[in-house]
From TrEMBL:
It is found in: Cytoplasm. This is Chromosome partition protein Smc. InterPro entries: P-loop_NTPase, RecF/RecN/SMC_N, SMC, SMC_hinge, SMC_hinge_sf, SMC_prok. NCBIfam families: SMC_prok_B (TIGR02168). One of its GO terms (molecular function) is DNA binding. Residues 230-341, 409-464, 647-709, 738-868 form a coiled coil. Its main location: cytoplasm. The keyword Metal-binding does not apply. PANTHER family: STRUCTURAL MAINTENANCE OF CHROMOSOMES PROTEIN 3. It comes from Ligilactobacillus equi DPC 6820. Belongs to the SMC family.
Length: 1159
């Protein structure tokens, strides 16, 4: 174990790259360069650059590891700055390939496992399973087999190329050989058959023309009768459609009448709803009026009672006043008498006492009067206060009711406005919905009308299509033999079909192609000659007629020469070669070339004539109008009065009809979907219209109710406003009274206080005077006393009289107020009675009865209209059935007419073909041909001979008398190349066999080596990891040649998993374990490890180094490392340093010897 150590950049890895270089590495990138010249020393500050790089390696082969090589092997590689280089093996110049083959399958090559770098380790665990199989292949020694297989594959490819070229030449010769062989045969047979064919064909044409003329006349009679029948059905259909339209018109009128009556019914219903609302409002108004009148009557009764009470009080007070006036008069009279009888006091004292007494009486009278007035005012004030409190409470209640009624009236107004808006919107929506319904109804009627028309057209087209299909399936217009072959197609093998069925071309070319091909349209294309023979034997055995067959493997294409093609391309008015303008649906294109490869299509006769002259009448030319210029100069053209329908035209019409029917069916389906969609929209719209009408009716009822509620709320609000105004007036009046009373009370109380003060002063003065009058006489005193008593009584009576007079005035005023209120009440009653009650209940009921009768009439009319509409629909259905029946009869007649037209066209086509053939082939008219006395009248025999002869002549084609010599020359070369082809096929088979043997050997060696490496890996892995388990698995065991290799491992303490799921260090150690396992299976003389253990930790580095130390002594390990554990286990260490810039130096140390010396 040799170690190479040194700092980074010192050149340690150059040792590995030098080894790769000398072993044949040609990738500059693998050598850490941009180009190969980068490995040459570029110089330094002290050294000049060199012009070459050279590596020399000496190998000890004394153990014979490299077989057939000397004991010492020296390899030198030189690379020069100009890019050239050389290899030397034991001082002999060799190729790089020789070096590669020397080390192939030895494990020592430049890409072998003997050079292991850190990148190589990463490549193992990062590569795909498919890429890992290269390690096993190198160990297995199968690379040389793979190289040999690549070489064999290259030889196989070259052989296949040779075979392809030879096959192309053989195909070309075959294509030349076949027509030449046929032309040689035709040249010997042509003249003999042509004469006999003309004789029998002339007889056939005359007999066919006679027969077809009779058939044509019969068909004309049938066509005329059928046309009359079609015309009758057309008239009946028109009448039925007219009746159908009349019914539809009547139905439309019924619908309009029904809509009108339903609208009238809706209007009557709305009027009834309005009358019901008016009736309800009238009833509510009457109830309110009665309630109000009752309330006013009660108030009037109360007021009258109050007036009566006040009147009685006034009467009582008046009586009291009268009585008091009488008492005052009596007392005044008594006082006057007493004064007359009294003794006048002679002294001043008595006069002063008298004055005092008079003043006292006056003050007492004033005091009594003031007290009486004060008591009366207090009573009136209390009463007015009670009345004001009651009125204020009533006013609060009225205010609350007024506010409630105002809110109700405002809410009713809002509701009314909202419902009016909703009603207007609903009416507009109803109108729009009805209009949309009418639009959809008209659209649906128009769509149904167009649908029925399109359906009629479709049925006619389908009838025509079915007729043409039956004609095509029955192969009408084809020869009997062709028809029988096609009917037995399933029984026979290789039958492709008649040319007329297989030919695909633009319809513009149909007439030209029918003219060019003629009877060849009925040729039957078959896959090969064997199929043609089988079909001919079938016709012969069953005696079902004759037919011409075109075997794809035997036909020879007809082509224009290069010169002819150039003339065709440069001549104006020439469309092109017919084979380029058509397609025959067969696998082999030779059919198209055989039939039309030598036929040219021109736009018109003038262009065709010019081309024929340029080509010296050597090519068949047809025009779009059906003119024919045959090779040789013959010209055919013109037109019959009644042109028949050829096979191509018949098929083109069928294809066109099929396309048209498909398009019409799609269009009809679209129309049906549109109609269904419109019908669904109509149903939805009708439902929406009905809902809109119901919404209008509902909103009309709500509108009437809202109007009634608003009117009632307005009346109630007005009543509450009037009541509130009255209470406010009463409150204002009571306030005036109370203010007046309050002012009077203040005045009276002030006067009373002054009077009491004066009375006290006078009483004091009287007491003083009384004391002074003690000496007065008893009589005088008695008189004076009595006079004073009378005067006092008189003052009291006068005071009471004054008080009662004031009371009488107040009662009169109060009575006047009550009478005013009573008059207002009576006025309001009169006003209520004068209010117009509106329509009476009886009038409203009469109007409702009239509307109900009108509603019943309208409902009955609507029922009758609906019944009539139902009956009309039934009639309409019957009429539609009649129209459909007549349509079916008419279509059946039209189908028959189409069949007759087809039959007529077929007969005309047959006549045309026979007359054209008579004119074109024999330049004769029917009249002239029918005069020939040698004509054979046995049509069956004639047809039989003609079929035989025609088949022979048609197969002969154009005759080339010089074809025999040319055929011999081509045939000789063809046979020579065929033999060469057989030799190449044998060589190819041997190469394939050798490659199979190589694959078998590779499989065997690969599996054996894989099993050995896998077993070795299972042993090495636990040694490297100190435990665990690992194995190799094939990704595709069934395919050892391509299978990949998956590495499964279970380090100690981990689960068994794929390599990609391990940690970086585990991956690296696992990869090195695999490399060591490979070395166990396939030991190599030396292994270079370039920092392979860089990703390992110290413990794993120690295991790695010890494993290397304990490895087989036959393998030399050269380790480039930075790790101490690896260095410690090396036997020899080489230190690489760069003491001089750009130049590496090597120092060696024998580590074992050094350790022993130290020990």
């Amino acid at each position: 174990m040799t170690g190479i150590v040194g700092p980074n950049g010192s050149g340690k890895s150059n040792v590995v790259e030098a080894l790769r270089f000398v072993l044949g590495e040609h990738s500059a990138k693998s050598l850490r360069g941009g180009r190969m010249a980068d490995v040459i020393f570029a110089g330094s500050s002290k050294r000049s650059p060199l012009n070459r790089a050279e590596v020399r390696i000496e190998l000890d082969n004394s153990d014979g590891f490299l077989a057939k090589q000397p004991e010492s092997i020296e390899i030198i590689r030189r690379l020069y700055r100009d890019g050239s280089g050389e290899y030397l093996l034991n001082n002999k110049t060799v190729r790089m390939r020789d070096i590669t083959e020397l080390f192939m399958d030895t494990g020592i090559g430049r890409e072998s496992f003997s050079i292991i770098s850190q990148g190589r380790v990463e490549e193992i665990f990062n590569s795909k399973p498919q890429d890992r199989r290269g390690l096993v292949e190198e160990v297995a020694g199968v690379l040389k087999y793979k190289k040999e297989k690549q070489h064999a594959q290259k030889q196989l490819d070259e052989t296949s190329d040779h075979l392809q070229r030879v096959a192309d030449i053989i195909t070309e010769l075959y294509q030349q050989r076949q027509p030449l062989e046929e032309q040689a045969s035709i040249a010997r047979d042509y003249l003999d058959q042509k004469k006999r064919y003309d004789h029998f064909n002339l007889s056939r044409l005359v007999l066919n023309i006679e027969s077809n003329q009779a058939k044509h006349q019969d068909v004309l009679v049938q066509v005329e009768a059928n046309q009359k029948l079609v015309a009758d059905y057309e008239i009946q259909s028109q009448k039925a459609n007219k009746a159908m339209q009349d019914l539809q018109t009547q139905q439309s009128k019924l619908e309009e009448s029904l809509d009108q009556k339903q609208n009238q019914l809706l209007e009557v219903t709305n009027q009834m709803e309005r009358l019901y609302g008016q009736q309800k409002i009238s009833q509510q108004d009457q109830a309110y009026k009665q309630e109000k009148l009752a309330e006013l009557s009660q108030q009037e009764t109360n007021l009258q009672a109050q007036v009566r009470d006040i009147t009685a009080e006034i009467t009582r007070v008046q009586a009291t006043v009268t009585d008091l006036e009488a008492q005052a008069s009596d007392l005044q009279r008594k006082l006057t008498n007493l004064k007359a009888q009294a003794v006048v006091s002679p002294t001043d004292l008595r006069r002063q006492e008298e004055v005092n007494r008079q003043k006292t009486l006056q003050v007492m009278q004033t005091e009594a009067n003031l007290v009486s007035q004060l008591e009366y005012l207090k009573r009136e004030q209390a009463k007015q206060s009670d009345d004001l409190v009651a009125d204020q409470a009533a006013l609060k209640e009225i205010d609350a009711l007024y506010q409630a009624e105002a809110q109700k009236e405002a809410q009713a107004q809002t509701n009314l406005a909202e419902i009016e808006g909703q009603h207007a919107q609903a009416k507009a929506k109803e109108k729009a919905s009805l209009e949309a319904t009418q639009v959809l109804q008209r659209r649906l009627e128009e769509q149904e009308k167009r649908y029925y028309q399109a359906n009629d057209v479709l049925k006619q087209a389908q009838t025509r299509e079915e007729t043409l299909k039956r004609v095509a399936l029955s192969h009408q217009g084809y020869y009997q033999g062709v028809k029988n072959i096609m009917q037995a197609q399933k029984k026979l093998v290789g039958i492709i079909g008649p040319v007329a069925q297989l030919l695909q071309a633009d319809q513009t070319y149909s007439l030209a192609l029918e003219t060019a091909l003629g009877a060849q349209l009925q040729n039957v294309v078959v896959t090969d000659t064997q199929a043609a023979k089988q079909a001919i034997n079938y016709l012969r055995k069953q005696k079902l007629g004759r037919a011409t067959f075109l075997p794809c493997d035997a036909l020879k294409p007809k082509r224009l020469s290069a010169h002819q093609l150039e003339v065709v391309a440069t001549t104006p008015g020439i469309i092109g070669v017919a084979s380029d303008l058509v397609q025959i649906n067969v696998p082999n294109p030779v059919v198209t070339a055989y039939l039309l490869g030598a036929t040219v299509i021109a736009e018109n006769l003038d262009a065709a004539t010019i081309l024929a002259q340029k080509l010296n009448h050597s090519v068949k030319i047809v025009t779009l109008q059906g003119d024919l210029l045959a090779s040789g100069g013959a010209m055919t053209g013109g037109q019959n009065k009644q042109a028949g329908m050829g096979l191509l035209e018949q098929r083109n019409q069928l294809e066109k009809l099929q396309k048209d029917v498909g398009l019409m069916q799609e269009k009809l389906a679209t129309m049906q979907n549109m109609g269904q969609k419109t019908r669904q929209e109509l149903e939805v719209q009708q439902a929406q219209s009905k809902q809109a009408t119901l919404t209008v009716v509902d909103l009309s009822q709500k509108l009437t109710q809202a109007q009634q509620e608003h009117q009632l709320a307005s009346v109630r609000l007005k009543y509450q406003a009037e009541q509130r105004a009255k209470l406010l007036a009463n409150n204002n009046l009571s306030d005036d009274f109370l203010n007046d009373y309050e002012a009077k009370l203040h005045d009276l109380e002030a006067q009373l206080a002054q009077t009491k003060q004066a009375k006290a002063e006078l009483s004091q003065e009287a007491n003083q005077l009384q004391a002074n009058l003690q000496a007065s006489s008893a009589s005088y005193e008695g008189a004076l006393k009595k006079q004073g008593e009378i005067e006092q009584k008189l003052a009291v009576v006068k005071e009471r009289l004054t008080s009662q007079s004031q009371r009488l005035a107040d009662l009169s005023k109060q009575k006047l107020q009550l009478e005013t209120t009573l008059a207002a009440n009576q006025t309001e009653v009169a006003n209520l009675e004068k209010v117009s009650p509106g329509p009476t209940e009886g009038k409203l009921q009469v109007q409702l009865d009239e509307l109900e009768a009108k509603q019943a009439d309208l409902q009955a009319t609507i029922a009758k209209l609906k019944e009539a509409r139902t009956g009309g629909k039934d009639e309409q259905v019957k009429a539609q059935l009649q129209v459909n029946r007549l349509g079916d009869l008419q279509r059946a007649a039209l189908d028959e007419q189409a069949n007759l037209a087809v039959r007529k066209s077929q007969i005309q086509g047959l006549l045309k073909n026979d007359l054209d053939e008579l004119a074109n082939s024999y330049a004769m008219t029917y009249e002239a041909a029918s005069q020939d006395s040698d004509l054979n009248r046995d049509l069956a025999y004639v047809n039989q001979q003609i079929r035989l002869l025609k088949l022979g002549l048609e197969d002969l084609g154009e005759v080339n008398l010089g074809a025999i010599k040319e055929f011999d020359r081509i045939n000789e070369r063809y046979e020579f190349l065929t033999k060469q082809q057989d030799d190449l096929l044998n060589a190819k088979e041997q190469l394939i066999q050798s490659m199979d043997e190589m694959d078998a050997e590779v499989k065997k060696r690969f599996l054996a080596t894989f099993n050995a490496i896998s077993a070795s890996f299972e042993n090495v892995f636990p040694q490297m990891f100190g435990g665990g388990y690992a194995k190799l698995q094939l990704t595709d065991p069934d395919d050892p040649l391509t299978t990949g290799i998956e590495i499964m491992a279970q380090p100690p303490g981990k689960k068994f998993q794929t390599l990609s799921l391990l940690s970086g260090g585990e991956k690296a150690l696992t990869a090195m374990a695999l490399l060591f396992a490979i070395l166990k299976v396939h030991p190599v003389p030396f292994v270079i490890l370039d920092e392979a253990e860089a990703a390992l930790d110290d413990a794993n580095v120690q295991r790695y180094a010890q494993y290397l130390q304990n490895f087989d002594s036959k393998t030399q390990f050269i380790v480039i490392t930075h790790r101490k554990g690896t260095m410690m286990n090396a036997d020899v260490l080489y230190g690489v340093t760069m003491q001089e810039s750009g130049v590496s130096s090597v120092v060696s140390v024998a580590v074992k010897d050094d350790q022993e010396e130290r020990n």
